[in-house]
DNA sequence: CATATTCATTGTAATATTGCAATGAGATAA
DNA sequence: TTATCTCATTGCAATATTACAATGAATATG
């Protein structure tokens, strides 16, 4: 991100930015979509599905986990990931609070 | 963004990532929220409002304009910015297509 | 125990982002 | 014309992100 002056902004603005950053990479979107389709997956599935190295997938999973959008549970020798429903709903609301705030002005303004 | 293997992903995944990237900075969210509140603004308003340098604001405005989320029209000596309603609706739909795809599984999966 | 499997972590190189001073470009006013 | 105003662009330094090979840690299998 480079130098960011986080202290200039509200907590809400910083939180939304942080969540949006997770969506700001096609690999992470692909991971999310794979989870939407299959409910559950392990690191190895994604390595096979996306064609990225294991370390790279692992790193993306960590970022998804850090904002709480997914959760992982140890399943023997592997780790099973899935979407966190509560957090998912919260994030959807966070975005829609912004989206819904827009109302087209009466006359075109510019 | 660092090295990104865009060719590994679908056009939809790359588009959503690109749009999300615009939301992935608190300054740009602050700009959007200011526009939601005031409908219209010029560069100078934002410099005063956010406390960032004029060049920095100008750069953020360019990125917002590049994904089409805002549009600017020359207004004498200044440039008047506002939200692009059509594009706004499209972006909201793009996100909600992903958000709405989630349905909590019957039994907790992980 | 020894080996294999699965995933996380570390370290590193390549690239992208952020922020700003300085400068450029276009319009308006004196 | 000359000066001023507003904004975009350029160039730079500091920092962040991306991707992966190598290694480490934990569990399972023979």
Question: Number of helical runs of chain A?
Answer: 5
Instruction: Report the helical percentage of chain A.
Output: 55-70%
Predict the CATH topology of chain A. Answer: Arc Repressor Mutant, subunit A
Q: Write the CATH architecture name of chain A.
A: Orthogonal Bundle
Please outline the helices and strands.
2 copies of one chain form a homodimer.
Chain A: H1 11-23, H2 26-38, E1 41-42, H3 43-50, H4 54-66, E2 70-75, E3 78-83, H5 85-99
Antiparallel strand pairs in A: 1-3, 2-3
Helix pairs in contact in A: 3-4
The first copy, chain A, binds a DNA duplex (30 and 30 nucleotides) through residues 1-5, 25, 27, 42-44, 52-62, 74, 76-79.
Q: Would you mind describing this structure in some detail?
A:
2 copies of one chain form a homodimer. Chain A has helices spanning 11-23, 26-38, 43-50, 54-66, 85-99; strands spanning 41-42, 70-75, 78-83. Chain A is of the alpha+beta class and 110 residues long. Chain A has a single domain (10-93), classed as Arc Repressor Mutant, subunit A (Orthogonal Bundle). The first copy, chain A, has a 3-stranded antiparallel β-sheet. In chain A, helix 3 (43-50) crosses helix 4. Chain A is elongated. Chains A and B meet through helix 1, helix 2, strand 2, strand 3 and helix 5 of A and helix 1, helix 2, strand 2, strand 3 and helix 5 of B.
């Amino acid at each position: 991100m480079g130098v960011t002056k986080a202290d200039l902004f509200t907590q809400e603005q910083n939180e939304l930015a942080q969540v949006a950053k997770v969506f700001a990479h096609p690999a992470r979107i692909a991971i999310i979509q794979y989870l939407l389709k299959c409910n559950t997956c392990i690191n190895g599935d994604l390595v096979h599905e996306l064609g990225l190295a294991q370390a790279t997938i692992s790193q993306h999973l960590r970022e998804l986990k850090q904002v709480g959008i997914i959760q992982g549970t140890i399943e023997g020798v592997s780790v099973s990931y899935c979407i966190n429903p509560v957090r998912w709903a919260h994030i959807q609301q966070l975005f829609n609070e912004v989206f819904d705030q827009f109302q087209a002005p009466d006359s075109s303004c510019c």
